[in-house]
Design a protein that fits this description.
Oligomer: single chain
Helix content: 25-40%
Radius of gyration: 15 Å
Strand content: 5-15%
Number of domains: 1
Largest sheet: 3 strands, parallel
Strand order of the largest sheet: 1-2-3
Structural class: alpha/beta
Number of strands: 3
Distance between the termini: 32 Å
Number of helices: 3
Length: about 100
């Protein structure tokens, strides 16, 4: 573990906050991978406005890393708007996509 990650882990522990949070934007996907943990049934999605309101409630420091995942995150037409909004909150953002 790098010194920076160790320092961040210790800080998160002292502040009693998680180091990382994962947000699944959608169940939709353009693939059906055998190893996938999602069932791909339509369970509905939060709207762009709901996601923005939800993220505004994240007061700093709440966590350090935000992983945006799904299904396939690029299937949302509003993906880049959501990403931009999250980036303005200054999280370290990780994206999980199949890139197709």
């Amino acid at each position: 573990m790098s010194a920076l990650v160790a320092e961040m882990s210790n800080k998160a522990l002292k502040l009693n906050i998680p180091l990382s949070v994962q947000l699944d934007l959608t169940y939709r996907c353009n693939e059906r991978c055998i190893h996938c943990y999602l069932d791909h049934h339509d369970h509905g999605e939060m709207t762009t406005a709901e996601l923005k309101i939800f993220s505004i409630k994240w007061r700093r420091p709440v966590f350090f890393y935000l992983t945006i995942s799904g299904g396939e995150i690029l299937m949302r037409r509003d993906f880049f708007e959501i990403l931009e909004h999250a980036r303005l909150r200054t999280f370290c953002i990780k994206l999980k996509t199949n890139g197709i």
